[in-house]
Amino acid sequence: NGTARGQEIITRTPMKRFGRAEELVGAAIFLASDAASFITGQSIAVDGGYLASGVNS
């Protein structure tokens, strides 16, 4: 992303880039599958480590 906000996000993301669609879709497919039938009320961050970097601290 060439915007200032996009660059700020990339700088704070440990992976130093935005995720590609093929990297993000796996979580959605899993959550829609029978394998996730017992999962309720969870947030699964597929964010390249953005939240783990302490950005919300």
Descriptive overview:
The structure is a single chain. With 57 residues, the chain is mainly α. The two termini are 24 Å apart. The protein has helices at residues 4-12, 21-32. It is elongated, with a radius of gyration of 14 Å. The chain has a domain at 19-46. The chain is 37% helix and 0% strand.
Main structural class: mainly alpha
What is the H/E string? HH
Mean pLDDT over the full residue set: 92
Shape: elongated
Q: Any key phrases for this structure?
A:
mainly alpha; 57 residues
Q: Layout of SSEs?
A:
Layout: H1 4-12, H2 21-32
In short:
With 57 residues, the protein is an all-alpha fold. Helix content is 37%, strand content 0%.
